[in-house]
Amino acid sequence: MEDYRRQGGIQQLLAAEQEARQIVNAARTAKSNRLKQAKDEAEDEVAKYRTHMEKEYQKTVSESTGFSGVNVKRLDEETVKKIDHLKKQAAKVSPEVVKLLMNQVTNV
């Protein structure tokens, strides 16, 4: 009879150990799920913040550059004017430069 009680006690201990394992595994799974959920929520929060900051940045850039199309057109016009001015100056000086070079080449 005592062996039977010992056997029953051992069985109870084994059952309790198995139940404890199940409880620990369930707790680990729940913790893992909570961590995953927290990570997903944090990633969503970061994405929202990044989107908000990108919009603010684009707004700031657009305000600081103003009308970029107008600026590009103005710069193109200024560049064309400067090129024309340089061509006119080169045309004025060209005959003198040719004459000077010819004198230096022919006079040894």
Low-confidence stretches: none
Order of helices and strands: HH
Distance between the termini: 137 Å
Shape: rod-shaped
Relative strand content: under 5%
Summarize the structure in words.
95% of the residues lie in helices and 0% in strands. The chain is built from two helices and no strands.
Question: What is the topological layout?
Answer:
Blueprint: H1 2-65, H2 68-106
Brief descriptors of the model:
108 residues; mainly alpha; 2 helices; rod-shaped
The gist of it:
The protein is mostly helical. Helices cover 95% and strands 0% of the residues.
